[in-house]
Amino acid sequence: MSKTRASGRTVGGLRSLSLQAPAVSLLLLWMLVPLGMTLWFSFQRYNLLMPEMTGFAGLENYEFLFTDPALWRAIGNTLLLVGWVLVITVVGGTLLAVLFQQEFPGRGIARVLAISPFFVMPTVSALVWKNMMMHPDNGVLAWLARVFGASPVDWFSSLPLTSIVIIVAWQWLPFALLILLTAMQSLDDDQVEAARMDGAGPLAVFFYITLPHLKRAISVVIMIEMIFLLTIFAEIYVTTSGGPGLATTNLAYLIYMQSLLDFDVGLGSAGGVVAIILANIVAIFLVRLVARHLEN
Amino acid sequence: MATLQLRNIVKRFDDTQVIKGVDLDVNDREFVVFVGPSGCGKSTLLRMIAGLESATSGDILIDGQRINEVGPAERGLAMVFQSYALYPHMTVEDNMGFSLKLAGVSKEERRRKVRETAEILQLEPLLDRKPKALSGGQRQRVAIGRAIVRNPSIFLFDEPLSNLDAALRVQMRIELARLHEALDATMIYVTHDQIEAMTMADKIVVLQGGVVEQVGSPMALYHHPRNRFVAGFIGSPKMNFVKVTVAHAGPAGVEVRLPGGVNCEVPVDGDGVAAGTVLELGFRPEHIQLDVGGPLEGCIEVIERLGGLTSLYVRMPEALITVSADGNVEHRVGDTLRFGFAPDCAHLFGSDGLALPSLHRHPLAALNRQDNRAISMAGSQ
Amino acid sequence: MTTAKPKPSLTAEGQASFTRTAPAVATALLSLEFRRLMLTLLGWGVSLLIFFPILWMAMTGFKTEAAAIADPSFLFTPTLDSYSAVQARADYFKYALNSVTVAFGSTLLALLIGIPSAYSMAFLPTRRTKGTLLWMLSTKMLPPVGVLVPIYLLFRTTGLLDTRTGLIIVYTLMNLPIVVWMLYTFFKDLPRDILEAGRMDGASTFQEVVYLLMPLTLPGIASTGLLSVILSWNEAFWSLNLTSSNAAPLTAYIASFSSPEGLFWAKLSAASTMAIAPILVFGWMTQKQMVRGLTFGAVK
User: Fold this and answer.
1) Which CATH number covers residue B223?
2) CA distance B361 to chain C (A)
3) I need a labelling partner for B271 at 20 to 30 A (CA). Which of B96, B235, C8, C285 fits?
4) The pTM is what?
């Protein structure tokens, strides 16, 4: 019935407003003040290298930005990065969750080891992968290739975006595993047993019982990861610096390059505005995804 | 000493009106039961009295004071929830003493009051346990104990027995009735189970779709339902309904034609009812007599033998009739049954669902539990 | 639907048929053993594969620089040279203290602000609640770079640049949306009745939160806090751009080793190991708690 609804509109509404006020107003400030400033700067000539050039720029910065092929490349890279990492972590995380759900000796420790990358700071994991795993001369992967008689791959110059995807996926796979494993533990044994009695094999059980049960958890994984993946920065900063060329420049990094490396605050801010708009478009999709999940 | 009045209470959630103007008087020390199908608004009404939900409009008065804007704790009520809502992280003693703790009552005083209440409910051995370690019935008693400790002017119960198994429910029913006697407090009790309503109430309030259908003593509702809904809701097995045509009507009675072609005179006020009008005749399964010479006839479709009683489901031309018969009837499925019913106990309902007023009040209709007690005392002398 | 189990039979035929199937049972058991073995190998193989980069880093920290760039080997004489060299260059403990202060400080603050907010969303929802929650989450999607310049300028004028307070403020705001959302999912799972019973017993909103809500959702609050600590500890963008020396946490410590001395792998590994060790151990110790919290809230 209506038990989940609000209690009295006036009293409850007021109470709920006052309780939410700190969080909402802080976030509003945190968002609006810089956003306003960014918006303001984006219409200004503001280059730290050319302090004499100031004043209203109109749409100049945006014009420059939108005619710059770098923007579209960066948007493309952002979406590719987010998309691939999501696919790898959700699929891989589900499979790993099924694996770690089974009983085997030392499962507890194995599980702890497998979720460890989540605790590693992005800068460190990027450095480790760059120097010790994917280094073309001394990296473990290069050594492995040589052992098997293949020529080592120079990861960051020949497969730059793939390399970044691998690093980021490695970091986020444990998170997906953690959440999905948790969700799997709440699967009702009766359901699985009933399916078995109905003649379902392990595969059928997975597809018809386990996977539907994980839907909610998967949407949580997608939502949280998307939030963080859209703004990936440290991994690129440490490994490729966006290169070679623009191969690994995502939107976050592009803005960083423009505003901090080229000292063009106006242009960087315009990029920031574009990023914010993109984030909001993604957020709308996300809202659809999560809204359903919030219903129940 | 506590009375409660509801004056034209309306509750709206967004655009749906769930309570559509309820008026009610609850007298001091009365046991009032709100009964109705799920979604009828009975729980919402109780929650508004408790202060957990605010009324969209109308007045709620306790002892004549309007308390719409008073917080739940200050109303001096206590509520027992359907889920018991015990605090899972506290022991039984802490659960029962929580309200006293919040009120700033000293530890010794708290302890004394909790022990006192625990004694009434035989909860002493459980005081150190957490709710998780209790059975359903024990949790129920703790929830009641928590309410008693507050010494409220009015007790509110929200379907408190619906999570118990059948045997325990009967036992708790009796215990609650006894508790009402012992505490001598005003109690308001919500249930969807008409048996609970019939057995415990001084006054039953039948709700449907946010509207009060009828208020009255159990026997008044049973013998003089105001409309077809109440007639069908109160009593088990349910009342039978058959479409009939009025042959002759007047202030002294209505003669109707049954589907089989038999006429029957029902003692209700038929003033203004025209001959030929289609009405609905209602008669209870327990008011049917098996009679080979009876006016009605049907084929037995299902037989339920309860031991002492047997329910026969009989197919009539336009309805399936339930007949309560003796446990020893020898009929078989497929047999043709002839029967009649007592017209004095029958009811006629118009197309608006309202019952035509009965010409005689049933002698027990004014009876409530207090009188019950008086009768049994007189009987034992 | 369950099918009837075959009745246990004690007759001679029954026993005979049992002995006949004994070899089949043996093979079944054997294959069960085999399955278990494969499962063990697979489980451990996968987990070691995932863990390998961390293990390798930790090992490299104990190698000499020469051994670090030589062909990979698990056999070497461990040395603490890299650690002492690293410690000589920058005081690890100063950075670590900053990290601890900032991570726990911001988490505490986020919980303090987040709990009342999540409480009202879960128990006093209005029509705007869902929208507010999603809006909060969407603020997380703005790339920090987009607003770095204004924040930097604001921090410079208010003197928050390179202070722990400044970082705590930023991290609190950064984690607040996730904290509120997670708390909301935990709170929503708490039966409303219990809080209502508390209200009937005379609890004020504050008492409701402190005596009932918090103790009852402690696992959820704990796992929310743990996640917030981990995210704050590992955050690199703001810490690199808003701190220089006084308030620099371990992410900055690592960054100082990354560019000029990137080739000195053993030292870099030693520094990296020290930077992640506290949070890794913390994560290992609390992962059970985290899973427990998550089970009863967000992803049930």
Assistant:
1) 3.40.50.300
2) 42
3) B235
4) 0.79
